[in-house]
Structure formats: structure tokens, C-alpha cells
Amino acid sequence: MNTCSFYIVERNTVLSSPRGICIDPIPEAIASYDLDEITLATLCSHTSLQIFHGAREEGFKTLGLAVGQIPKYYDAYPRAKPDDFLVVGSHLDVLKHAGELRDQNVILIPHGSLVEYLGADNFLDLSVPTFGNRRVLQWESDRTKSRRWLEGAGVHMPKEIRDPRDIQSPVIVKYHGAKGGRGFFIAKDYADFVKGIEPSAQYTIQEFVLGTRFYFHYFYSPIAKTGYRLRKGALEMLGIDRRLEANVDEIYRAGGAAVEPTFVVTGNVPVVLREKLLEEVFDMGRRVVEKSIDLFGGMIGPFCLETMVTDTLQFKVFEVSARLVAGTNLYPTGSPYADYVYDTMSCGRRIALEIRNALRSNQLTDVLS
Ligand code: AMP
Known about the structure:
alpha+beta; Rossmann fold; D-amino Acid Aminotransferase, Chain A, domain 1; 6-stranded antiparallel beta sheet; 4-stranded parallel beta sheet; 11 helices; binds adenosine monophosphate
């Protein structure tokens, strides 16, 4: 095996690949690309319909990475069906096709499922130019680091309780790495905690915040020169959703019977926010992006802050997702917010537009890693 063990995630910065697998520096890979023949590829799942649809709208060829077989549902949605498919035996097999993908001038568009199924280390090792800054993964997936990032940015988070014996009011116990709220539980005191905890698991205890949940779909462009300007580039907020979670959202229907609330994500609904709160929404987004620039060169493209607004109109951010979140699927042709910026714009299409703009201004390596 080749022993070189670095790749470039941003200009002048190298990041060790966790397994030391040699990855071509991305600018070098891009230098060998035919820029008139760029293909945008993603895994056939999660938010792929809006990614393919948006890429086509921006004039790119599209490639679907399908595991096992080509999903038949694309036949039902021809405007969001990729031009071509690469069928692989397993998610990990994507790694073996990196050379082939580069030969096809592929830029990979990550979404939540791609990163989850590939695994964070494999995603970092994948030597295919990828939209966004992959370095964000290390900050986003580790609850201690993400708290350092968010609190360092000056946004409010739910209080953390380090010692379960200090639980004096309702808390939510979150397992590390748990997806979609699975296994989370509420405890009102130490006895509740002991009763509910899975002893071998790693967990975080947070103050249980009561309020209204809003999940903001931001897009940060490091190359934009107009709009809501940041220290570098500009920030957009293209939509808001709220997740539907079983059974906590409908627990009132049990008529007060003693049912343990669970937080398993089952879907999403569109929401809008009181307009006067938008000022704070943009300020939170700005702080989180600018802190990310200081910490790891900045996240790029779509990200989501998962927030609670309390009855004193205070925002508490309980999670950051640094890629396209599934709630954006609500808005394939624009949201009540995207409509004030563009004629027809999904977050998937916004990624393709960013790549198109970067190509035009010769800044492609500024939005890839
Ligand atoms: P997360 O995995 O952090 O996105 O949390 C999953 C779900 O748990 C959220 O969508 C909320 O419904 C709920 N949740 C998370 N953190 C809190 C909190 N501190 N207070 C109240 N509910 C929370």
C-alpha cells in the first residue's frame, strides 16, 4: 500500500487520514478534471432526489451510487432520477471505486446517510473531491467538541449535567452516536436516571428544555460577495422544519396514562418563525460559521442548527448538523424563505449552484475537500 498519509482539506492545511491511506490532494485531483464534464454524485437515499434534481437544473450530469440494486422509486420521479448509476455491493465498496469516480470527474455530495453508512473514518479516507469541508466531522460527531464549538461561538445551549447525582429537574439523557433520538430518555431525578440508563453506553445529560423546536436550514458560501455578509462569504437561511418524533409529539393522546416518551424521528413538517426572531437566527448562524473558520477552516454549504425557543423567546441550540438534513426535503422548489432570494431553489440545488459559481470564478477548491 502506498504510505503517503495526508490530504488537503483547505488551502495550506493538511489533515491526517485516520488510517494513513493515501489520498490525492484534492486540488491535484481537480487539476486533472475536465471542468466542462463535472458529474455530481451521491448515495441513492436520504436527500438524493433534491440533489439530483437540483444538479440537473444547474446543468450538471448526475450519478447515483446504489447499493445492491437501483432503487425503483426513481422511475416514479424522472426529474430527480440520476443520469447514470454505479451499483456497488455494499456501502464500503464505494471506497474501491474512487479511481473510477475521479475518472468520471465526480464531485461527491455528502448527506446524512452517506456519512452514516460509510462511517466517519471511511468518509475521511474517500479520495474523491467532496463538496464541503470534511474536517467538520470531527467537531460535529463528538458531543464534547461540538459543545466547545457552539458555546465558543456564544450561542446558548441546554445546560449540561456532568454528575447524574446532581439531577434536580427534568433532564434528557442522550447516548453518544445515537441516531434520530433513539434510546434517549427523560429523568427527573437520580433514581430515574439509574432506572433508565444503559450502563455500558456513553451518554450526555442535558437540561430538558421546554419550548418550540425549530430546525434551521442554513447555507454558508465562503465565496459569495453579496447578501448577509460574514467575515468571509455570506450566509443564507433557506428554510425551517420541525421533526416529527414518535411518540413524544402525540403523547397527550394517551390521555395522561403513564407512557415513557421516546424521540424517534419519523418525518418532518414545515414551519415559519415569528419574523422578529430572524435577526437572532442569522446572528446564531453567523457566530457558528465564524467560529468554525477559527477552529477548522470553516464548514461550507448546508448546515442545520436544531433549536428550541423558550417562552421567554430565548434560543437554545441542542445540536448542529453540518450537511444537508432530511428536513430540507420539504422544499424541492423553494421555501417561504428561499423564495425571497431565488425563483426556485432547494438546498440540494443550492449546492449545485455553489459549485457552478465556484467553477465560474475559478474557486472550485475553496468549496471542496
Ligand atoms: P438530537 O439527537 O440531539 O437531535 O435530539 C433528538 C430529539 O430529542 C430532538 O429533536 C428533541 O425533540 C429532543 N431533545 C434533544 N435535546 C433536548 C433538550 N435539551 N431538551 C428537550 N428536548 C430535547
